[in-house]
Amino acid sequence: MSGRVLVGVKRVIDYAVKIRVKPDNTGVVTDGVKHSMNPFCEIAVEEAVKLKEKKLIKEVVAVSCGPQQAQETIRTALAMGADRGIHVEVAGKDYETLGPLQVSKILAALAKKEDAQLIILGKQAIDDDCNQTGQMTAALLDWPQGTFASEVSLEGDKVKVVREIDGGLETIKINTPAVVTADLRLNTPRYATLPNIMKAKKKKIANVKPADLGVDLTSRLEVLRVDEPPQRQAGMKGSTELSRRDS
Amino acid sequence: MAAVGPLARVARLGSSICRNHRLILNRSSQRRGIASCIDPAHGLTDEQKEFQKVAFDFAANEMAPHMAEWDQKEIFPVETMRKAAQLGFGGIYVQPDVGGSGLSRLDTSVIFEALSTGCVSTTAYISIHNMCAWMIDTFGNNEQREKFCPDLCSMEKFASYCLTEPGSGSDAASLLTSAQRKGDHYILNGSKAFISGGGDTDVYVVMCRTGSKGPKGISCVVVEKGTLGLSFGKKEQKVGWNSQPTRAVIFEDCAVPVTNRLGEEGQGFSIAMKGLNGGRINIASCSLGAAHACVQLARDHLLVRKQFGETLSNNQFLQFKLAEMATKLVASRLLVREAATALQENRSDAVSLCSMAKLFATDECFNICNQALQMHGGYGYLKDYAVQQFVRDIRVHQILEGTNEVMRMIISRNLLTES
Asked: The Acyl-CoA dehydrogenase/oxidase N-terminal domain covers which part of the protein (chain B) (predicted)?
């Protein structure tokens, strides 16, 4: 096995920012707004780096799809311990309509190209909350998937994943190559250290275009309108007779 | 307006509710530098932004939740500082061959400014520790550097800077602590006052008199805790800076090996002053962080508090006051960063600029924090609100590492000396 892990990282609006809807209701304001790595992607990077430190895998490759600024997110992954990065350039209109289907096609193509043993992604992004990319990538590759992972262990050529599901915890064992998506309690991401940030400068980020991977970016979805959640209304006081009747 | 505050942030992490040590509601996320004109990331390189991000994250997660408790219980947060050291914050501008991070003065200023938003007092101590580590790194010989610096950079050991005495504060060159040469030891006699970390730290960088009167008779020696004749006064009770102990350091026939002297005899005062140039930028940076946090807190309060039927943010006087605070903050930040760059490049105006930056930033930032407290009304006076701690903590920045009056002396001397 190649011992190579692909980690997808997404640049999203920072979790602490107050989101504002654009006046034309076509989306949210992103210009001049603080962005950072999706928190679940941080957890994914941390898990991959941990596996490398345990010497269970050999190389961690961080991938991000987006415009020039996506490189900042890849640099953060490199500062956390990833070995090299791949920036898939998607800009302008294509970036606005970029969704899980397109990203999973890109990741599937890269996984084959890089001969990846494992793909680790965050379970969902905090901007669209889609929770689809991991699952779609696995389907496109016809690989097994361990989603909502709160524990991951490599055992030979299999991966044991403890999944957080509605009923509690489910443990599964899947063959590699596989896709794993990280849930909140999988680990606590490390802070990048000052020396690692400086070392990250020397690590390589390759530039790739979706066309080079043979991926068609056309979206099957069209966003019609974006609105704020409705204002919280005052509650109503029920009459006491009603409640006695119901009990 | 969309739902404001904690609920919105929790909802954005989907099914994952409050990861307690990361998602600190109310206090810390508001200090992350979101409001754009005062964003401290402006003008920085990508690498500096990365450093700043780590420092902000560390401040928000590891320091801000405890800052009130450290102040109230007077806790010296050794474990937290060691965690900071693991990230490279123990010897930021110390050379890498002895464990430092080898960064520039500007990088250092950016880092301390960000850390300060989490706890001013602890960050200020970390900056003093960094200053001592740098002095040993720069003026020590190889044996001294290798003996002391690695442990200081990892914060396995902590350091204190000992210059001030009961009889010599601003007039530092008149210090009296004597160091009599006896064979291969100096015998130290005297006492130092107001020493940050004194009694709890391991390595003391002490300026003492080996020669005759004046600055040229002063040398710098490193005294280790546990040396016979080294003792400490009572822990002082202070208005702020309570997460670091302050004590007198007393020398009674304290024998220090001559091999612990940094540089030559008579070089001590110059070493002390060079240390302080950087120290002044660091302290000014801590004031910047506090002021930044306070502007964020004031802004958020104005958007929430209602009087006379509308939010305070609709009141023109308060809008203008906030604008003035923001302007002074950015002006202070620019001066501090310019001084850091000048010091890094060893420019001829570096010393004056460091003094100007310390003078201006500490004064203005205190006023900003004080104004922010005023904007909170009665709530600003309660210890439940962080703004009062920022005010108390940065008040002393106008006094130590050279009073702002001494800063004026340095600047006027530069202007009035015929050259």
From this structure: 45-156
Query: Is residue B111 scored above 50 in pLDDT?
Result: yes
Q: What is the pLDDT of residue A236?
A: 85
The residue of chain B with its CA nearest to that of A199 is B47
Q: How far is A32 from chain B (nearest CA, A)?
A: 8
The beta-carbon neighbor of A17 closest among B34, B58, B86 is B34
Query: Catalytic residue numbers of B?
Result: 401
The CATH code of domain B159-268 reads 2.40.110.10
Tokens of B348: 């001829």
Verify whether the Cβ–Cβ distance A39 to B53 is below 8 Å: no
Q: B343, B210, B217, B224: which is closest to B269 by C-alpha?
A: B217
User: Which residues of chain B lie closer than 8 angstroms to A201, CB-CB?
Assistant: 47
Mean pLDDT per 10-residue segment, chain A (247 residues): 91 90 92 91 97 95 96 94 97 93 97 96 96 98 97 94 96 97 96 93 94 93 92 82 57
Distance CA A130, CA B169 (A): 63
Task: Report yes or no: A177 and A111 within 8 Å, Cβ to Cβ.
Answer: yes
Which member of A75, A131, A188 has the closest CB to residue B50?
Answer: A75
Instruction: For tokens 């076509």, name the residue.
Output: A26
A195 vs B101: CB contact, 8 Å cut-off? Answer: yes
Element (H, E) at B370: helix B350-375
A201 at the B interface (CB within 8 A)? yes
Q: Which CATH class is domain B270-417?
A: mainly alpha
- CATH pick for B5-153 out of 1.10.540.10, 1.20.1300.10, 3.40.50.2300, 3.60.40.10: 1.10.540.10
Window 16-55 of A: residues touching B by CB (8 A cutoff) are: 16-21, 32, 34, 36, 39
Contact flag A195-B96 (C-beta cutoff 8 Å): yes
Predicted local confidence at residue A179, as pLDDT: 98
Helix (H, G, I), strand (E, B) or coil at B106: helix
pLDDT tens, A67-103? 999 999 999 999 999 999 999 999 999 999 999 999 9
Task: Check if the beta carbon of residue B134 is closer than 8 Å to that of residue B275.
Answer: yes
Name the residue of chain B whose CA is nearest to A79's CA. B50
C-alpha distances (whole Å) from B73 to each of A83, B66, B128, B178 are 44, 10, 22, 36
Residue B32 in this model has a pLDDT that exceeds 70: no
Q: Give B224's strand partners.
A: B203
Name the residue ranges covered by the structural domains of chain B: 5-153, 159-268, 270-417
